[in-house]
Write a structure and sequence with these properties.
The protein is mainly beta and 95 residues long. The chain contains one helix and six strands; from the N terminus they run ββββαββ. The protein has a single domain (9-94), classed as Alpha-Beta Complex (Nucleoside Triphosphate Pyrophosphohydrolase), CATH 3.90.79.10. A four-stranded mixed β-sheet has the order 4-1-6-5, with helices on one face. It has a two-stranded antiparallel sheet with strand order 2-3. It is globular, with a radius of gyration of 15 Å. It starts with 8 loop residues before the first strand and ends with a strand.
Amino acid sequence: MTEQLTVAVGRRAARAILIDDDGRLVLIKRTKPAQAPYWTAPGGGVEETDPSVEAALHRELAEELGAEAADASQVFLFSSPSDTGVAVQHFSSRG
């Protein structure tokens, strides 16, 4: 019998892989107090009020870029250890 390990998901995020009309990857520069600025894919945390990861992605893109997304589907999932369990990031792109 195989033993299964259960790990709590501490934070979920929805991120978009966006390519502009010139074929360049779209990133945003994020600044936070007491941290060096860094570049990341647009998106952010999935909130309890979001009905789905996709809904969170739509909300985040509207907030950060004033953009709308259509026909996005998850292309990969990234997870890493965090203080509260595992941080999971759902990356989506348009087919």
